[in-house]
Input
Amino acid sequence: MIGSTIINQRQHVGLQKLLALAATASSTLGPSKKLKFVQDEASGESILVGSCLRILDNLEPTCAVGQLVYETIKAHHKAYGTGSGCLLFLAGAWGRAALVCLQSGGSLPHVVAALMEGMDVCVDVCRKSSVSFEDLCASPSSRLSQERITKAPSNSQMTPKGQKAIKMKLSRHFCKTEPESFSVLEPQLPDTAHLAEGLKHGSDNAMDLVLQASCIQLKNTPKDAHFYFDVSKVLTCVLPGFSEDQAHVSPGCVLLLDADQSLVARHLQDTPLNAAFIRGDLSYTYRHLGFNRPTGVQCVADQPCLLSKEEEWTEKVLALLLHLKVDLVLVSGLVSEEVLQRCCKHGILTVGKVSASIITEMAKATGAVPVTYATQLSKPCIGTGVKVGIWREIPSDQRTSVNIYLSGNTHLVTAVITSFVHGKLQVLEDRFWACAYRLHHAFKDKAVLPGAGATEMLCVYHLQKQANVEQKRNSFRGVVLHLMADAFIDYLSTLIANSAGISQIQARTAVKQQLQDFNGDCSVSAELPRLVLDTRSKPGKVYDNLSVKQEVWRRALDLVLLVLQTDAEVITGVDERNHNAAELMFL
Output
């Protein structure tokens, strides 16, 4: 019937597509991630992937649910840099729970309400089991950092309860209570090495680079300031053709330059440079966001112009750079090929695609003022104190890596990722960023969660406990809560199966055996799911990020609810003569 709104109550195609996509995330969970080759059937080319996002990047989902999943994963990765595999896996597991309930006759409003109640239980678990930095500093197993612990005055009698507590920014699904008034004392900071050890999640080499980067930032942090690992001032440079043990971290900004740029860099190396910083593209056609070109405007000249408008603009920009004696131009966007070549001929090093945060930091350190258009440059906009050093030659593609650094203290650091296997570079770079964001969010949250599946174990315990209460009331919610707990059991089982190299059935049996003796004690839970860890890893505390885990759970549930809503509101045409019409419910 044309114009009728129908629900395919028995099929729920959207949820089924979500489950199919979520199945791709299982191999990316845990410290022992399995690498996969994704092959293009048309061209025959393949790429090595090791994360949920990279898999979806190369699968290129075209259906509506696939696009929704892809955009959700991209948005989360852009904001948090880690946790995408967990997000997709739980979205599939909770989607399966919703599908089971709906197929067994449960109503959509009741399923949604029960899922929301289960999320409240999980958030409460995070709140109660989180470990603040004060607790980490007080723990006997934690080594205090000798260079950064802010101490209270000797005559102060304040207890830990009097110190500044952690104000968590939670999403709309979480509690919205107003923060209490706190004292001005900041929490103590744990030893960074101890914290990094608990957050590496099997990526030892990547976390070693992150720790080196944090040490550089710590060294350049004033003694009277609180240290904070700032991932926005970290960048990576990928160098093929070198062994992985040559990966290192360097102060400054390491970039790859082509042959012409390299010649200019050699001429300018190790001398103080005048630098200009441009936010946007360095091209004639670039206009800032929101710019509206006037319509109906014509330019009339008395004499014909031999140069095009673009050529005139290029000449004007070049003359301005030479007049201001600019040696280096860093651009956040693209640089037109004509401008690049003209600058190289006049000994001006121009580099594009530089992170906006890097431009902001370098401009601040050099006293420069970033501009949107090159024609806005003037003498007060030019910074000084930047130097360029040649780093490594790459014979395979005739490129050169150079280090653009500052003479003074700066938090800018570059992790140089190397490997003989070109296809592995993306995986190594992704692992570095995952570790960097974990450490970054830990300092930002000033708290962590028990890792290695301990927090999920607590969620299973409390979800099952609440489910039993609901079932005694003959409430349908008890069924949904049990299924949400089963989703966490599936998650833990997958972690163990990936790490220990055992079957999913064996892993699930191991989890259930541990649950039988579990009493819900948070301190005990951290020691229970040890099979989640790689057997080669050294024993020790394992941590997860508080804000990341909460946001992963929220987005996973949001994704399920959005697909449910899409399934419920889809409008299609149905032929009354269709024999399957009896299975459809018309609204």
Observations:
- The domain at 6-132+450-582 is CATH 1.10.560.10 (GROEL; domain 1).
